[in-house]
Amino acid sequence: MLSAAPRLAVVSAGAMGAAVAKRLTNIGCTVYTNLEGRSEVTRKRAQDAGMIDLSVNELVLKSDWILSILPPRDAVSFAKKIQEVAGNILSSPRTFVDCNAVNPKTVKRIAALFAGTSIGFVDAGIIGWPPKGDYDPTFYASAEDVKTLDEFTTLSKYGLKVSPLKGEGVGVGDASALKMSYAGISKGTTGLYTTMVLGD
User: Fold this and answer.
1) Residue 26 vs residues 29, 43, 69, 101, 104: alpha-carbon distances, Å
2) Which of 36, 37, 95, 97 fits as disulfide partner to 120, beta carbons 3.0 to 4.6 Å?
3) What is the layout of strands, in order, in the sheet containing 30-33?
């Protein structure tokens, strides 16, 4: 029997974020997001996924976890906003999870924003397509604190496919490095195949 389902914020409600949110809401999780300035298409996508639109302040106040699934260019600014808001309220999220395709240097910069606060940090690289049907992408995750990483891994009970990266010297930056390596290999292989086809 599952314990009380966690409350999560997933920002944003793009193709990946909304699909991940739908996995979570289907199993009974409450999923918040922020739709300020978003298009009607995005709003409809969020509604279909069962996401609840809140202001950033409310989102920080009510969420146990915040999953940042954004275009890479927005990753740092969003983390800064969460850190600033959390510093001004009595309650704060348990953990901030950066799931963006950023390089290790950038994710370490993001992690540093939460150093010395009560908010844990997980570096997560999503490898695969948005979840659909029986398919789920894998969240490869690393963290400096093993307990925080283990807690994130428990979200596998609620629809996320989490694969923790553990071992001596493993920490923030390793999941992002894995994601970048995978992307590089995939793009390189695609380029090679394309060259072979065009060369025929």
Assistant:
1) 7, 18, 19, 26, 32
2) 95
3) 52-53, 30-33, 7-11, 65-68, 95-98, 120-127, 138-142, 161-164
For residues 61 and 89, the answer to whether their CB atoms sit within 8 Å is yes
What is the C-alpha separation between 157 and 24, in angstroms, rounded? 9
pLDDT tens series, the chain, 200 aa: 446 899 999 999 999 999 999 999 999 999 999 999 999 999 999 999 999 999 999 999 999 999 999 999 999 999 999 999 998 886 778 899 999 999 999 999 999 999 999 999 999 999 999 999 999 999 999 999 999 999 999 999 999 999 999 999 999 999 999 999 875 554 544 343 344 444 55
What is the distance of C-alpha 48 from the center of its chain? 19
Q: Please name the amino acid found at residue 126.
A: I
Which of 94, 115, 116 lies closest to 172 in space, CA to CA? 115
**Residue at 171: amino acid letter:** G
Across the chain, the runs of DSSP E, i.e. the strands, are 7-11, 30-33, 52-53, 65-68, 95-98, 120-127, 138-142, 161-164
pTM confidence score = 0.90
Q: How far apart are CA 153 and CA 139, in angstroms?
A: 9
